[in-house]
Design brief:
This protein has 281 residues and is an alpha+beta fold. The protein is 30% helix and 30% strand. A hairpin with a 6-residue loop joins strand 9 and strand 10.
Length: 281
């Protein structure tokens, strides 16, 4: 059965749902989206931060207040990443399929998952680029669960030292590193996989104040993977599935869908993200 342009909202919703379910680095567990509404039309927004006022001693009747001038800093969050997709499903394939009517919906969900992978890789890249230099722990081979645990504790201390908020911290690890953690009795004793924790966007549970997320991603170089940690207040992400159009191509007997994805991200607190380099052998 042919699709129609009036179904645009249906496909856009399926794409967004798949995106929100599949993404990890660009998820709300890792990034805040507080400026997403502001960039919906303008495509960029100025983020203003202000310096912290000085706190001084005060004695009633003696101290004369001096008003200091606070300084501000300005950053720009730009939705400057523009990606597209376009695909078609032939009428014959849909008719002959056991559930042909669901093929386009499934294809739309796959497109959403692909967009999530693309956005995740972008956010992962800017984390690697913009993490404060003092929040990077050098490379080591992980051959025991104790070594894996020591690395988690090391990056936790970096976040503690930079006064990163405790609530809502995340830890992103590849599956092989998570396997080492699972072998540690301290990790399991913490009940990281308790039924009270949601398994969503790769979040496996909580440990040492972190939401532990498992994600597969390319090695940093050589045989090293980055083990990431941080707080969502450190990175702002804005996402728009800007245009989704359903159509019947003139040159084919098929249903087609095309879409435009516009997004951007900005690290605003480099000291509230950290990573360590680890290799599986």
């Amino acid at each position: 059965m042919a699709i129609t342009v009036s179904q645009r909202e249906v496909w856009a919703a399926l794409l967004q749902q798949a995106f929100d379910k599949q993404n990890k680095f660009s998820s709300t567990s890792v990034c805040n989206r507080q400026y997403e509404g502001d960039v919906a039309n303008a495509k960029s927004v100025k983020i203003i931060s202000i310096s912290r006022p000085t706190v001084a001693a005060f004695v009633e009747g003696t101290t004369s207040l001096t008003f200091e001038s606070l300084t501000d800093a300005q950053r720009t969050l730009a939705c400057d990443q523009v990606k597209s997709f376009a695909f078609q499903l032939g009428d014959i394939a849909q008719v002959q399929s056991a559930n042909g009517g669901a093929l386009m919906a499934e294809a739309a969900r796959e497109a959403g998952a692909a967009l999530a992978e693309d956005a995740d890789e972008y956010v992962r890249t800017i984390i690697g680029t913009d993490t404060a230099a003092g929040n990077i722990v050098g490379s080591t081979a992980i051959t025991t669960s104790a070594l894996a645990m020591a690395r988690v504790i090391a990056i936790k201390q970096l976040l503690d030292d930079s006064n990163t908020p405790q609530d809502g911290r995340y830890l992103i690890v590849p599956s092989w590193f998570n396997s080492w953690l699972l072998l540690d009795s301290n990790y399991m004793a913490y009940d990281a996989l308790s039924s009270g924790n949601r398994i969503e966007n790769g979040v496996m549970g909580k440990f040492l104040g972190f939401d532990v997320m498992v994600a597969q991603y390319a090695v940093n170089g050589g045989n090293d993977h980055r083990i990431y940690a941080g707080h969502p207040s450190a990175i702002t992400f804005a996402n728009q599935i800007d245009k989704v159009e359903a159509l019947r191509p003139e040159s084919a007997f098929s249903d087609a869908l095309k879409g435009l994805h516009v997004y951007g991200a900005k690290v605003t607190r480099p000291s509230s993200i950290a990573y360590t380099l680890c290799s599986p052998d």
